[in-house]
Amino acid sequence: MRCSWWCPVDGAQGPGVAVSSIDPMSRPIFIALILLIAAAAAAIRLSQLSERPMHGDEAVNAYKLGETIEGRGYEYDPREYHGPTLNYLALIAARLGGVGSYVGLTEFILRVVPVVFGTLLILLLLPLGDGLGRMAAVFAALFMAVSPAMVFYSRYFIHEMLLVCFTAGVIVCGYRYLKRPAMLWALLAGVCLGLMHATKETFIIALGSMGAALLVMLYARWRTGQWVNDIKRVKPVHCAVMLLAAAVVSVTFFSSFFSNAGGVLDSVLTYSTYLDRAGPTGLHEHPWHYYLGLLGHYQFADGPVFSELIVLPLALVGLGFTVRGSVEGANAGLLRFVALFTVLMTVFYSLIPYKTPWCLLSFYHGIILLAGVGVACLFRFKSIVFRLALGGLLLVGTWHLAWQSDATNNEYNADSRNPYVYAHTGSDIFRIADRVKEMAQAHEEGLATPIQIYCPGNDYWPLPWYLRGHRVEYTNTVAEASQSAPVILIQPPLEEALMRKLYELPPPGQKELYMHLFDENGRETKMELRPGVEMRGFVAKSLWDRFERAKAEAESTIQGPQQ
Length: 563
Description:
By secondary structure, the protein is mainly alpha-helical. Helices cover about 55% and strands about 5% of the residues. The chain has 22 helices and 8 strands. Strand 7 and strand 8 (about 535-540) form a beta hairpin. The longest helix is centred in the C-terminal third of the chain and has 26 residues, at about 385-410.
């Protein structure tokens, strides 16, 4: 008999597949370790959660959430913004935080949502302990807890971590169902599948990879004549319940809880848009090895070398043992499914020209699972010297991952030398926003002070987040007919048009002199929204003088009591 490719139940195996019912790690210790690692992972992810500047994508998602909070509703847009789950799950966080307006939102409330799902991803290893092997699951949890990529994007208010978590949920529920068919697991698998669809359009890559992996495994069983028994274990009524649950969840979210029926159709039509983007359009286009380069070795300019190389070779080891069918204490069928799914996902994402770094999470999760399997298999070798060397290597490698996580989320949290920083807002945003707010505070209208921001292509995000609550006009051209605001932000390509509006068009005697907003010691300071995107600021001289007088009075008030 050939080696079995599908062993979802009772440890069935063919020759060469070592599946032991005895795991070297007891169940209580396994549960305690996973919970401990998850708690540590949560603490790492929650630390200084508000310090990093908001990425433009985060700010857009926050604005959409603000519309929902303030009663303007949510409608799925098939061209932008991805699925609705992030919006509605963040709405729960906002309600729990007592937030009733867009202005009341904070970075912490927004980013705690991916933190929850990044932590839940580790907890989902609990029901996989007897499938991956408990030791493998513990090491996979450890790698997930400190992986720079996993930590960085678990603190990022975008859809990716939710998608990875829901995908893992489908795999977990599918495994538990095939191990012991029950309506509950079928229902939960359907819920997770519906959440995948309602999170991001790229769920179709994960779904296709799952389907392809199952077909390969069934084909191997068909060649040995054993596939009939596998099919009989799956009850049609359970399949119906799973599909119905997926449909109900998906329709509920895309219809904005049954208030926008068109959103359901849009969830299908959207693929015409995203298929076009997946092609070689030049936008976010990168070579096939882009993701592997980020994980394997990344160094930009004079920055440090970032690498998660400790994980990749271990994943190859786990893959090798899985193919050989020599993994003790694990379910051969689950391991082979994870291996096939991960390889297919990695290939698909690598071949698509359109690439953004956070997309690597979808297949990197599987790579980490295989790395955990690799560690567990290597510890089966009896040589004490080998085990000590392996333990030392893992200790150094895990410490290195933890150091990189700290660096990517603190010192390099908005720095291009960080492999996971991509088209990211720079730290200048804080100075830009603070200076605009200072001028508004000096103006008699306060928050209602008119502010104009001119950016070609509406490339002004995340300024709407940092200036929320202020009276701001955002446009992509300089309108000559409108009255000039006392505070103006502009990108250099439009500056000539602004100078014409300020100094050439007004009739004699009605011209207002403008000063450089970012003036320090008599010299204009260069400010960037993000690398290569400069922002220049101008403020009416009358307001500038008022600001300077207020500042001088404040300084004299402080110095008076000291003297």
